[in-house]
Amino acid sequence: MHHDLNALNKQAIATAREYTRELAWPTMALVLLVWAVLIADVYLFATGQLALTPAILIYAIAT
User: Fold this and answer.
1) Does the structure show a pLDDT above 80 at 62?
2) Residue 41 CB: number of other CB atoms within 10 A?
3) Which of 15, 28, 44, 46 is the most buried (most CB within 10 A)?
4) CB pairs under 8 A, 24+ apart, for 37-40?
5) E-only strand ranges, the chain
6) Are 44 and 50 a contacting pair, CB within 8 Å?
7) Virtual CA dihedral for 46, 50, 51, 53, nearest 10 degrees?
8) In Å, how far from its chain's centre is CA 34?
9) pLDDT score of 5 more than 70
10) What is the tens place of the pLDDT at every residue in 7-48?
11) Model-wide pTM > 0.70
């Protein structure tokens, strides 16, 4: 049974490599966009340039 598990693991790794050959750049761009929006939202609220209600709405939409 141990040999069968090793073979299955090797097959699973080979199959996974077929689907993960490169980095998911659209996902990375989305992550960076969300982080930028959240940081800008907190900054604008903390400096008084954005009221609490719009800051909460922006935060809720971004997350």
Assistant:
1) yes
2) 19
3) 44
4) 37/62, 38/62, 38/63
5) none
6) yes
7) -100
8) 9
9) yes
10) 888 898 888 888 887 888 999 999 999 999 999 999 999 999
11) no
Lookup: tokens for 40: 């800008």
Which amino acid, one-letter code, is at 23?
A: L
CA separation for the pair 2, 6 (Å, rounded)? 6
29 residue type, one letter: A
| DSSP result, 5-62 | HHHHHHHHHHHHHHH-SS--HHHHHHHHHHHHHHHHHHHHHHTTSS-HHHHHHHHHHH
- Please indicate whether residue 50 or residue 2 has the higher confidence score (pLDDT): 50
Tokens 């935060």 sit at which residue? 59
pLDDT at 41: 97
Look at the block and give the residue holding tokens 């709405």: 57
Contact in structure between 32 and 62 (CB atoms under 8 Å): no
What's the full length of the chain, in residues?
Answer: 63
